[in-house]
# Entry
Amino acid sequence: MTPPEPHGAPGLFADRLRVLVVAAHPDEPDEYAGGIAARLALAGHGVKFLSLTNGDAGHWSTPRKALARRRAVEAFAAARELGVQEYEILDEHDGELVPSVALRREVVARIRRWQADLVVTFHDECPGHLDNRAAGRLVREAVSVVGLANVVPRVPALETPPVCLLMPDHDALAHHRHDVVVDVSSTIEAKLRACLAHASQFLEFAPWQRGLLDQVPPASDPVGQREFVLEHWAPYLCTQPEVRAAVAAAGLDPVGEYAESFQLADYGRATTAAEVRALLG
# Structure
């Protein structure tokens, strides 16, 4: 891993950003923030994905241990597609994530070790997957103490807390505020390849849940698989009408066909939507 650049450059951030995306399951960082991750990585910033569970509940037939191993392999392949430097997966059971003190310590340690300038995670109180809410709560609580030297003293405290952004899982969209909308059309192909690397989810488990398993194209048809994901994950990939409306209401230039939306968290380092927009492009 490349050593972090020193903090303290003029402006909101150092010249080289350190970005940490924290989700509950492998595949979610790619799905919700893969576009900006690829953009930032291409620009030379450091990007890490952290999954707080190993995803071992995400299949109808594969046993937990085998599934956790498979999902780790998929995650590392996805990281290569996006240019993400690290993809860390904690060994916690999928479907059982709780915001415990022990896990909070682990999140504190990882925010500090990565020397994160920017942390992206889920809402902690909205509808959606219970693990996603727990992940958001863990990040909220961890960020509140990242500067306290006596909390997790084995890892040096941060002098400045990170800026924090929230990404919605699909069921939380109605409660999400589109503060920062980033056009990711330039990196959508990398994001699609990353999603397809998580074949156990995008080509097996989720289609099985939705009754679409018989419609999944075979591995010999990668173009068909790409189109399948584009069609059935449009709310996660394509710019939705409510996002376009929010951009227009803010008086900003229209975004393209593919975009990612984030809300400023009410914790972490104080900033403005305009500052973050300027940073993320």
